[in-house]
C-alpha cells in the first residue's frame, strides 16, 4: 500500500470545529461558573465576616452600654451615698422629709434616672427607707433583692472606706435589674462626725424595662436591645447579666451588612452569570453555525484534499506500475518531466534527456513529433507511432498520446509497442504466408490480386493467372511420408519462385496447388513458354534423402481482362482450365476457354441430376461375364453401373462415378449397386459369383463392413460367391485402415480382388501384405499388346507373380482372339472382355445364364 501523505493523516484526525468550539466554550463557561462561584463564595464569606464583625462590635457596644449603665448607677449611688447630708439624714437618722419630701433622695431619682427602687438599709440591716416607683413605701428591700441583699450589703460596706460603690445584676420578677449600692458615708463633709455603727447602705434598683433597654441600645448604636427569649439564649448576640447570667440575658440585633451585600451582590452575580450564559449561548449558536459552515467547508476541503492525495497516489502508482512512461514538454518542445519508467522502458537516462528537445529523441513516420503535436484540430485521443533508438542501437517503436497544457506545453504517455508491432508484423506475415514454404497464402493472393486488378490490366499487358497443381504428388506423401512430401513442396516452391520475375507472385493455396500471378507477359506465346519452363523445372528429379522423386504439374491459365476482371472469376476460370489440363492427360497446360465453363455448368447439372437419379431409380446394372480361360466356362460376372438418364440416355459410369465420389453421393449409389447386384446374383446358379466395384472413398467413410453385411443378409447369397474389386489407391491412402477393413470383410467369407493392376504404382508389397484373392490386369496391357513383345512378358510376369501369391489372375479387355490365345498361353486364370461378352443388361445376362446353364460357354470364334 502506498504511504499516505502527511496531509491526509492530519486531516483524518482533525476534530470538527463545532466540537472544538463547543469544548472550548464549555471550558470557558465552566471557568466562568467557577469564577462566579468563587465570587459568590467570597461575597458570602465577606458577608459572614462582616456579620461576625458587626456581631463582635455590637456585643462590644452592648457590653459598653451595660458597663455605662453600671458606671452611671455607681456614679449616682456614689454621689448620693458619700454625701454628708445623706449620712446625716439617712444614716444617723432617717429623715423622710429631707429625703423624700424635699426630694434629696426621693421621687426624682425615679423620674430622672428611672430607678424603680430606692432603699436605705441601716446598720442592723433593716430597711430604713424605701421609695418604689417614686412612691415612699415601707417595703422591705429584702422583698426585692432577696438573697442578693446580704452580699450587696457586704460589698457596699466593704467599699465604704474607699468610697467605692458596688453594682450587681439581679433578677426581679423575671426581668434583669441593675442594683447599685454604696455605704452611706459623710464623704468630705467635715461637719459630720461618723459614728462607729456599721454604715447604712443606699441601694438603687434599676429594673431594665424594654423601652429603657431600647434607649440604652440606641445610645450605643445597638439595635433592638431587649431581654433575650428562651430561644434566643441558644443563639448569638446574647449578653448574660449577673453571675452566670442569673439576672437574665440581653439580646440585640446586630446589624447585618451581609444582607445588603448579599441582597445586592448575589443578584448582581446572578444577573452577570445569566448574562454570561446568554452570551455564551448566543456565541455558541453563532460560532456553531459558522463552525458548521467551517466544518462543511473543511470537510469538503478535506475531501478534496484526500481526493487529491488519492489521485496523486493513484497517479504515482499508475505512472510507475504501468509500462508506459509519462512525459511533459514545454512550449519549446523540451522535456520538463519524464517519469521513472522512462529509464526502465527506453534504457535512456532521464537526467540526460530532461531539458533536451523531444524531437531529438522521437520521430514519427510523417515528420517530427512537434509537427504532429501542432496539427490544427488534432484529436487528443489519437496517438502516433514514433521511433527512437535505444542505447544498444536497437530501433524501438513507441506509441505517443498527447494533450495540450494550459501553458502551451504538452504532456502525455508513451507506450512501448516494439514487440506488439513486431508480433503484429509477424502475425500479418504468418496470416498471409504459408508456414511450410514461406510462399504467400490464399489471403495474400487475394490481396495481391485485388490490388493488381485495380490497376486495370489491358489486353496488351494482361494479368496472367496460372493455377498449378502437382501430378503424382499424393503418392509421394503417402509412400515416403509427410516429411518427404514437405521437402518436395518446399523444393517446388523454390523452383517456382525462381522462375517468376520480381513483382509477380507465387502463392500456395492448397496441399499441392499453387497460383502464380504474372504481369509482365505479352501474348500467349510468352505464357506458354513460361508454362513450359515451369513444368520442366518441376519435372527435374527432387532428391529426398536417398530417394529421387519425380513429380509433374498441370497448369490452367486465365487472363484478365480477356477472361475475367474479377478475382473470384479469374481464380475459378484458372481452376477450370487446370481441370481441363488434368483431364487432358496431365503434365500440360490449358488456357481457359469459354466452353470450359459450360462443361463445368453441365457437370453441375449432372451432379444435381444424379442426386435425383439415385433416389428415383434411374440407375441400372449391367453385368459383364467373366470366363475361365482354360475351359471357357463362365464363372461369374462384374456388376457395372449405368445411368438411364431421361434426356441423355444411358450414361457410362466414368462420367458420373467421379461426380458421385466428389459429392458424397457415392455411398448411396454404391449401396444401391451392392444390394441390387447381390440380389440378382442370389438368383443365379450357385457356381456363378458376382463381382462388385468399390470406390476408394468408401473405405474412408461409411461403414463398409456393415453395408456389405446387410447386403449379404438381405440377398441371402452365399458370401463365397461375392467378390469386391478395389483399386490400389485404397491402400495408398490409409494402408492400416484398409488392411483392417479388408480382414474383416474376409472374415465375412467374401473374396477381394485388386482391380486395374498395373495402372498405379503396382506395388508388389500390397499384394503380399493385403489379403487379396485375385488381381485383375488392367485392360491397357492388352490394348497395347502387339506393338512390342515387352508387354507380353510383363503380362506373363504378372500372372507368374499372382500365382506365386496364390491369387486368381484375371485379364480385362479381351477384345480379340489373339488376346485370348496369349492369355491362355501364359496360363492366365480368368478373362473378361468385349470379345467374350460385352456388359449385358439384366435381361440379357439372365438369357445368357439360361442358355449356358450347365454347359460351358463356347468361346466365340
Ligand atoms: P472397370 O472396373 O475396369 O470395369 C471394366 C470396364 O471396362 C467397364 O467399363 C467395361 O464396360 C469395360 N470393358 C469390358 N471389356 C472391355 C473390352 O474388351 N474393351 C474395352 N475397351 N472396355 C471393356 P464401364 O462399365 O464403363 O466401367 C468403367 C469403370 O467404371 C469401371 O472400370 C469401374 O471402375 C467403374 N464402375 C463401373 N461400375 C461401378 C460401380 O458399380 N461402382 C464403382 N465404384 N465403380 C464402377
Ligand atoms: Ca472392375
Ligand atoms: Ca478394371
UniProtKB/TrEMBL annotation:
InterPro entries: Biofilm_reg_signaling, CHASE4, EAL_dom, EAL_sf, GGDEF_dom, Nucleotide_cyclase, PAS, PAS-like_dom_sf. Pfam families: CHASE4, EAL, GGDEF. CDD domains: EAL, GGDEF, PAS. Residues 311-355 form the PAS domain. Keywords: Membrane, Transmembrane, Transmembrane helix. The chain crosses the membrane at residues 20-44, 261-284. It comes from the Bacteria. Residues 603-853 form the EAL domain. Residues 461-594 form the GGDEF domain. This is Diguanylate cyclase.
Amino acid at each position: 500500500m502506498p504511504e499516505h501523505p502527511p496531509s491526509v493523516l492530519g486531516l483524518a484526525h482533525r476534530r470538527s470545529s463545532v466540537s472544538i468550539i463547543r469544548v472550548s466554550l464549555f471550558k470557558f463557561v465552566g471557568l466562568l461558573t467557577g469564577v462566579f462561584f468563587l465570587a459568590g463564595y467570597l461575597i458570602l464569606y465577606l458577608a459572614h465576616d462582616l456579620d461576625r464583625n458587626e456581631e463582635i462590635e455590637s456585643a462590644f457596644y452592648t457590653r459598653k452600654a451595660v458597663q455605662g449603665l453600671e458606671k452611671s448607677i455607681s456614679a449616682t449611688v456614689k454621689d448620693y451615698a458619700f454625701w454628708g447630708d445623706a449620712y446625716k439624714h439617712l444614716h444617723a437618722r432617717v429623715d423622710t422629709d429631707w429625703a423624700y419630701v424635699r426630694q434629696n433622695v426621693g421621687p426624682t431619682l425615679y423620674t430622672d434616672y428611672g430607678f424603680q427602687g430606692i432603699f436605705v438599709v441601716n446598720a442592723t440591716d433593716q430597711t430604713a427607707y424605701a421609695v418604689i416607683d417614686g412612691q415612699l413605701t415601707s417595703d422591705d428591700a429584702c422583698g426585692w433583692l432577696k438573697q442578693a441583699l446580704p452580699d450587696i450589703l457586704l460589698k457596699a460596706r466593704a467599699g465604704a472606706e474607699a468610697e467605692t460603690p458596688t453594682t450587681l445584676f439581679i433578677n426581679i420578677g423575671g426581668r434583669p435589674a441593675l442594683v447599685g449600692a454604696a455605704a452611706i458615708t459623710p464623704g468630705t463633709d467635715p461637719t459630720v462626725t461618723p459614728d462607729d455603727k456599721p454604715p447604712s447602705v443606699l441601694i438603687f434598683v434599676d429594673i431594665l424595662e424594654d423601652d429603657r433597654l431600647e434607649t440604652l441600645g440606641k445610645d450605643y448604636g445597638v439595635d433592638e436591645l431587649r431581654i433575650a427569649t428562651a430561644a434566643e439564649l441558644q443563639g448569638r448576640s446574647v449578653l448574660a447579666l449577673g453571675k452566670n447570667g442569673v439576672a437574665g440575658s440581653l439580646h440585640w440585633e446586630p446589624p447585618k451588612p451581609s444582607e445588603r451585600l448579599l441582597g445586592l451582590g448575589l443578584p448582581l452575580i446572578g444577573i452577570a452569570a445569566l448574562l454570561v450564559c446568554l452570551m455564551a449561548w448566543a456565541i455558541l449558536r453563532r460560532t456553531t453555525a459558522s463552525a458548521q459552515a467551517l466544518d462543511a467547508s473543511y470537510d469538503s476541503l478535506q475531501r478534496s484534499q484526500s481526493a487529491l492525495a488519492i489521485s496523486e497516489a493513484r497517479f504515482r502508482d499508475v505512472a510507475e506500475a504501468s509500462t508506459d512512461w509519462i512525459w511533459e514538454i514545454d512550449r519549446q518542445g523540451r522535456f520538463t518531466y519524464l517519469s521513472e519508467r522512462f529509464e526502465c522502458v527506453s534504457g535512456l537516462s532521464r537526467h540526460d534527456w530532461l531539458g533536451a528537445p523531444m524531437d531529438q529523441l522521437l520521430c514519427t513516420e510523417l515528420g517530427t513529433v512537434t509537427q504532429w503535436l501542432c496539427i490544427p484540430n488534432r484529436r487528443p485521443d489519437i496517438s502516433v507511432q514514433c521511433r527512437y533508438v535505444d542505447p544498444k542501437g536497437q530501433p524501438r517503436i513507441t506509441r505517443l498520446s498527447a494533450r495540450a497544457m494550459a501553458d502551451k506545453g504538452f504532456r502525455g504517455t508513451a507506450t512501448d509497442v516494439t514487440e506488439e508491432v513486431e508480433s503484429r508484423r509477424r502475425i500479418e506475415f504468418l496470416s498471409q504466408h504459408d508456414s511450410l514454404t514461406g510462399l504467400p497464402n490464399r489471403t495474400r493472393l487475394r490481396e495481391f490480386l485485388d490490388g493488381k486488378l485495380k490497376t486495370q490490366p489491358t489486353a496488351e499487358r494482361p494479368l496472367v493467372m496460372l493455377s498449378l497443381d502437382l501430378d503424382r504428388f499424393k503418392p509421394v506423401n503417402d509412400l515416403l511420408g509427410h516429411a518427404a512430401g514437405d521437402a518436395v513442396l518446399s523444393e517446388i516452391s523454390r523452383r517456382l519462385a525462381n522462375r517468376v520475375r520480381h513483382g509477380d507472385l507465387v502463392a500456395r493455396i492448397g496441399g499441392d496447388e499453387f497460383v502464380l500471378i504474372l504481369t509482365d507477359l505479352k501474348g500467349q506465346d510468352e505464357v506458354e513458354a513460361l508454362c513450359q519452363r515451369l513444368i520442366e523445372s518441376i519435372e527435374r528429379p527432387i532428391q529426398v534423402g536417398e530417394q529421387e522423386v519425380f513429380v509433374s504439374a498441370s497448369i490452367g491459365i486465365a487472363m484478365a481482362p480477356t477472361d475475367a476482371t474479377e478475382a473470384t472469376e479469374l481464380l475459378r476460370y484458372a481452376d477450370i482450365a487446370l481441370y481441363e489440363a488434368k483431364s487432358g492427360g496431365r503434365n500440360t497446360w490449358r488456357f481457359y476457354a469459354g466452353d470450359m465453363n459450360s462443361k463445368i455448368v453441365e457437370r453441375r447439372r449432372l451432379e444435381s441430376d444424379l442426386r435425383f437419379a439415385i433416389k428415383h431409380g434411374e440407375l441400372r446394372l449391367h453385368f459383364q461375364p467373366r470366363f475361365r480361360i482354360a475351359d471357357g466356362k463362365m464363372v461369374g460376372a462384374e456388376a457395372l453401373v449405368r445411368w438411364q438418364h431421361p434426356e441423355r440416355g444411358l450414361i457410362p459410369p466414368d462420367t458420373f462415378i467421379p461426380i458421385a465420389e466428389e459429392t458424397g453421393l457415392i455411398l448411396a449409389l454404391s449401396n444401391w449397386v451392392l444390394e441390387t447386384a447381390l440380389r440378382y446374383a442370389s438368383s443365379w446358379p450357385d457356381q456363378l459369383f458376382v463381382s462388385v466395384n468399390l470406390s476408394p472413398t468408401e473405405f474412408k467413410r461409411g461403414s463398409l463392413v456393415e453395408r456389405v453385411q446387410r447386403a449379404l443378409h438381405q440377398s441371402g447369397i452365399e458370401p463365397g460367391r461375392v467378390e469386391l474389386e478395389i483399386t490400389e489407391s485404397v491402400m495408398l491412402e490409409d494402408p492400416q485402415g484398409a488392411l483392417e477393413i479388408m480382414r474383416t470383410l474376409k472374415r465375412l467369407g467374401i473374396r477381394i480382388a485388386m482391380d486395374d493392376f498395373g495402372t498405379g504404382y503396382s506395388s508388389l508389397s500390397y499384394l503380399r501384405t493385403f489379403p487379396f484373392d485375385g488381381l485383375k490386369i488392367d485392360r491397357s496391357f492388352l490394348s497395347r499388346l502387339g506393338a512390342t513383345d515387352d508387354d507380353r512378358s510383363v503380362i506373363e510376369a504378372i500372372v507368374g507373380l499372382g500365382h506365386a501369391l496364390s491369387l486368381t489372375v484375371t485379364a480385362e479387355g479381351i477384345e480379340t482372339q489373339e488376346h485370348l490365345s496369349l492369355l491362355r498361353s501364359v496360363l492366365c486364370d480368368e478373362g473378361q472382355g468385349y470379345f467374350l461378352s460385352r456388359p449385358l443388361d439384366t435381361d440379357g445376362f439372365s438369357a445368357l445364364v439360361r442358355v449356358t446353364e450347365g454347359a460351358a460357354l463356347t468361346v466365340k470364334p
